[in-house]
Design goal:
single chain, 64 residues, alpha+beta, 3-stranded antiparallel β-sheet, 2 helices, 3 strands, globular
């Protein structure tokens, strides 16, 4: 299985917003996005790449 691409928080946020998710709220350094009953929690630490599990979750929600 090929490796997932590395994403920063801003790139992951751009993917979620482009897929129709809306920023619902923030708590600390985590931002919560929601779309028709689906929810994604994105740790938002500037300049750091996301953990592969977070990248996988974002890609599954975006649809690709």
């Amino acid at each position: 299985m090929p490796k997932l691409p590395r994403l920063t928080a801003a790139e992951a946020e751009r993917l979620l917003l482009g897929a129709g998710f809306a920023h619902v709220r923030s708590k600390g350094s985590h931002r919560i996005y929601q779309r028709q009953g689906e929810r994604v929690v994105l740790p938002f630490h500037s300049g750091k790449t996301r953990h592969p599990k977070v990248v996988k979750q974002v890609r599954e929600m975006v649809g690709g």
